[in-house]
Specification:
Layout lengths: L2 H12 L16 E4 L2 E7 L2 E2 L2 E2 L11 H23 L5 E12 L7 H16 L6 E7 L8 E9 L1
Organism: Vogesella aquatica
Protein name: RidA family protein
Length: 156
């Protein structure tokens, strides 16, 4: 399967359509290209108008649910790349991924939550999906989302 076909299949499993415009939540652009660099604004696990994974990880949200949240947020970022470039085949590399996890006071497995996104990038993009990453525990996120992530990619 091509990258685009894999993206479509992964999106369908979560109720996303890679050809539909994604809802954003403010006065900003979801993707900005500067030269070959593509900067993707923070994405939360929103499907349509609903944030599907909410709450503090380690309290109201399990680690597995948070990994799914990271995967959905990552799919949204990939959809933005797909829509902007016309194909994921034009993604030369994911450079950086920042993952923010709304965490309970004693939750320390932010890296394991972020693996939900990192594994998806490798699954869909192979070596081009290998990236550097920061995962951070935070007290709150927009719309009570369990996870938010942003990324930087390079266009081919």
């Amino acid at each position: 399967m091509t990258r685009d076909q894999q993206l479509a299949a992964a999106c369908a499993a979560e109720g996303l359509d890679p050809n539909e415009a994604l809802q954003i939540g403010g006065q900003y652009v979801p993707l900005l290209q500067h030269g070959q660099e593509l900067h993707i604004s923070g994405q939360i696990p929103r499907v349509g108008s609903q944030v599907v994974v909410c709450g503090r990880v380690g309290e109201r949200c399990s680690e597995a649910e948070a990994q799914r949240a990271a995967r959905i947020a990552c799919l949204r970022a990939l959809v933005l790349l797909y829509q902007h470039l016309g194909s994921l085949e034009r993604v030369a590399r994911i450079l950086r991924l920042n993952v923010y996890v709304q965490s309970a006071a004693d939750f320390t497995r932010q890296s394991e939550v972020a693996n939900g996104a990192s594994a998806l990038l490798y699954q869909l993009l192979g070596e081009a999906g290998v990236h550097v990453r920061t995962s951070v525990g935070v007290y709150q996120l927009p719309k009570n989302a369990a996870v938010e992530l942003d990324m930087v990619a390079i266009a081919a």
